Amino acid sequence: MISGSRRDIATAARAWPFEEARKLLARIERRQKAGRPVNKILFETGYGPSGLPHIGTFGEVARTSWVRQAFREMSDLPTRLVAFSDDMDGLRKVPDNVPNQALLREHLGKPLTAIPDPFGTHDSFGAHNNARLKAFLDRFGFSYEFFSATECYRSGLFDRALLTVLGHYEAVRDVVLPTLGPERRATYSPFLPVCPRTGRVLQVPIIAWDAAAGTVVYEDEGRRMEAPVTGGHCKLQWKADWAMRWFALGVDYEMSGKDLIPSVELSTKIVRILGAEPPETLTYELFLDESGQKISKSKGNGLSVDEWLAYGPEESLALFMFQKPRAAKRLFFDAIPKSVDDYLGFLAQYWRDAGHPATALENPVWFIHDGSPPAEDYPASFALLLNLVSASGAHDRNVLWGFIRAYARSANPATHPGLDRLVGYALKYYEDFVKPRKQYRAPTAKEREALAALADALENMAEQRDPETVQNVVYEIGKSHGFEPLRDWFKAIYEVALGQTQGPRFGSFAALFGCAETAVLIRTALSGAFLTATKA
User: Fold this and answer.
1) 268 and 134 co-located in one domain
2) Which pLDDT tens digit goes with each residue over 155-169?
3) Which of 452, 447, 494, 450 is nearest to 476 (CA)?
4) Do 281 and 253 touch, CB atoms closer than 8 A?
5) What dihedral angle (degrees, nearest 10) is formed by the CA atoms of 520, 522, 523, 524?
6) Which residue segment(s) compose the domain that 523 sits in?
């Protein structure tokens, strides 16, 4: 049982998952007032297994899980999360990223679970991709139940719902027709028979339907055919299918991307026709690439989960998904360092607020770690590590740890495993993204004089390891040499000494790298050696 005080805190929390969970509390109240008991809350996420799981799949399941977590803080009602695979869909085109494409072309139009696996590892292409989805979700520790559309149709789980749709055939059809073009409107039916000869999902007009018998009549290559709508002999068109699933399973909450807004609106109308209440929904914005274009799997202009995790920990990806789900965000490699350091900042803030539950529940790391964030200490940020790699020319983690131990004497890979992981990510990220973009410039006369004074000051405080003390010295030198605003001074330091336009607090960097070593770095830059090396 949740204590009253904790429930009050959760009910007042402002983080977006709590806002979403409050929709469910209102839903429960509406049902109870109408005399309909509520025994559980069902969350659902959907997956189209014609392709492999991707970063959007991760985002949708993670975000739904966070709403579920928030709801559990406010209610003792049991919850379930269903990961639903639309694996009875007919394959419309062959994906570009799979082997044996000629094999798949022979089976276009068949349900994904009736097509041979081009990878040769499972009974069908659908089974292969479903296994990939489950392995993908298990990798991140999501708590879910897997549902296959094929199994739901064939087992009879959807039979009652399918007969209900058939009983409202005209009303369901007439809701969809205005959204279609003239040609499609002439042949549209909510039901798609599965051809008993070819196994293909047929896009054919329905000539007649019999709600009492539970059958539809259609014409296939000149032959008049009758099929039951139950037992997997038919499936529903997408929008009617989504509504039927909400009705059949009793879905209370599902989120979807902005591109599916029309589908949500139609499915909402259909489920009301069927006599049920549509789920609570959240529409999230889609991701953009570096140039602001919508990410497309076919264009390959986005990041995959594996690409992100090659340069940053899972928590950084989770935080990227957590923040502002209703805002469009650019998803490209430059987003990783900021997300890593934002995560470190939120983790440190969580432990500073540990005695204040109301603040802790607002912190993203409470969601990311399912209410139990690790008590990890990070003496250096990811941005600092990147600059340390840049300044030291280090190519292995032992060299970097030498600098870190000089700065934070109690730190080592065994006591700080999280930081050790960041060291590895920093080495790889620097090599692949920072180093190729480095562009040094010569200082102006004013900058040269100030940088020479900074090198002298740093050399005179060689043993200083306090970032604030070092930062104050850097400030004073910038002020005394007439830099206004001071950001121009720090920009000059980074462009001349490190070949980049920005970085973390320079005092923190110098304290980590070493003041004497930083003085040598600045003097080397003033000698023109970095410019010469870059041109070479």
Assistant:
1) yes
2) 999 999 999 999 999
3) 450
4) yes
5) 80
6) 438-536
